Amino acid sequence: MKILKEGSIYIGTSVIQKTIPFLLMPFLTRILSTEEYGIVAIFVVAASIYSLFIGASLNGFVRVIYHKSTAKEFSDYVSNALIFFIVLSLIAYTTTWVFESSLSQLFGLEKSYLYLALFVAFSKFMFDMRLVIFQTMRQAFNFAKLQLTLPIIEMLLVILLVFYLYKGAEGRVLSIVISSFVAGIVSMYLMHKAKLLRISFNLNYFKRIARYIFPLLPHSIAVTAFFTVDKLILSSNVGLSIVGELAVALSLALPIWILAESINTAFMPWAFEKFSEGKLDMVVGASYLLLIGLFIVGILYSALLFFIFDLIVGETFKNVLYPALILIWAGWIKLAYYLFAKAIVYSEDMNYLPIISISSGCVYLGLIYTNIENITLVNVSFYMNAMFIVMFIGVLILSQIKFPQPWCNFGSVLEALKIVNKNIRMQKWKKI
């Protein structure tokens, strides 16, 4: 079964990708202070905000349109998506140049860091675009090779700039900037080699892209903004230390979050194919199996983290264990959100998704703000879980309205298990 092979490659790549930061964490948490971790966290957030604006869900559109167009049409859509990207990048740069003082004060970063964050977003767009096309075409091995380029280069730069040259937070930021640039250049070369890096304007295609991304843009802005505003509220009312501790807690929980992303990455192209064939029961059954599987992995990882925590982080971050254990389950809820949201994405009707995102984000920030006087890292972790629960419930209702699926057919789980078992036996037979 091809999806099992692809899934194993995506998961294996994610394990390797997240092992690298885990190997670095015992050293970084002993070299960087909580304040320096906070600066790096804010820089990453700034780069994410730029990414969502100049990327504007263009990668998501490319993923969807591949299953609805010919090879020539797909190439033209990619070309028009690149034109969109260039226009949005110019708008982002101009906005930064005009409001650089206000933005610098808002984020608490130097002005030069703002332009570096924009540069990271520009480079990451090309990197993510090439990855999405590999994934959509179900070229899992090429996807894995490219995806591992970024963390490996970043690790080498961290060793040089932070551990060897003792550049602190500045060195950590530069490692992100340089590695993103190299990965972006490699991705552009691969796009050029595949004859996808070209400009060919088509007004009808351009309009279709606009109809997809503009309703989705408020959703993307809302999700990223809430994860920015929470840090700004915490840093201004509590201090940078809690922001740095939150960044470490999220890093410890991130393997499950990344695993959820990897499962979604492997599952979405297959699910879109089954949608086009009308095989909704297969998608539902496979979705339940994935949720059960990640639930078991979450329990095992929580137990492992509890026992090896002291080996991973330094004494400065000793109080992030329980927040990290709580945040692990936010990753599981994210997978549930992805599995239900994919029907909305396939339908290309994104108009109501921002309402769900904004509502859930308001719940999250409202809980933080109303309890800011006595807030702890454990509180923030529970509030983040609450936000994802609200998002999940929202897409559950919306997906059933826009693209109904038989989620009450629990027998589909057994059918999915039979199909998986049958394909595994066939693979063993072929090897014999």
Topology:
Layout: H1 2-31, H2 34-55, H3 58-65, H4 71-98, H5 100-107, H6 111-136, H7 140-164, H8 168-193, H9 203-237, H10 240-277, H11 280-312, H12 321-347, H13 353-370, H14 377-402, H15 411-431
Q: What are the defining features of this structure?
A:
single chain; 432 residues; mainly alpha; 2 domains; globular
Count of domains: 2
Order of helices and strands: HHHHHHHHHHHHHHH
Q: How many beta-strand elements? A: 0
Flag low-confidence runs.
Answer: 426-432
Radius of gyration computed on alpha carbons: 21 Å
Distance between the termini: 17 Å
Helix content: over 70%
Task: Describe the global form.
Answer: globular
SS element count, helices: 15
Mean pLDDT: 81
Sheet with most strands: none
Structural class: mainly alpha
Proportion in β-strands: under 5%
Could you give a quick summary of the protein structure above?
The chain has 432 residues and is an all-alpha fold. The chain has 15 helices and no strands. Mean pLDDT is 81; it is low at 426-432.
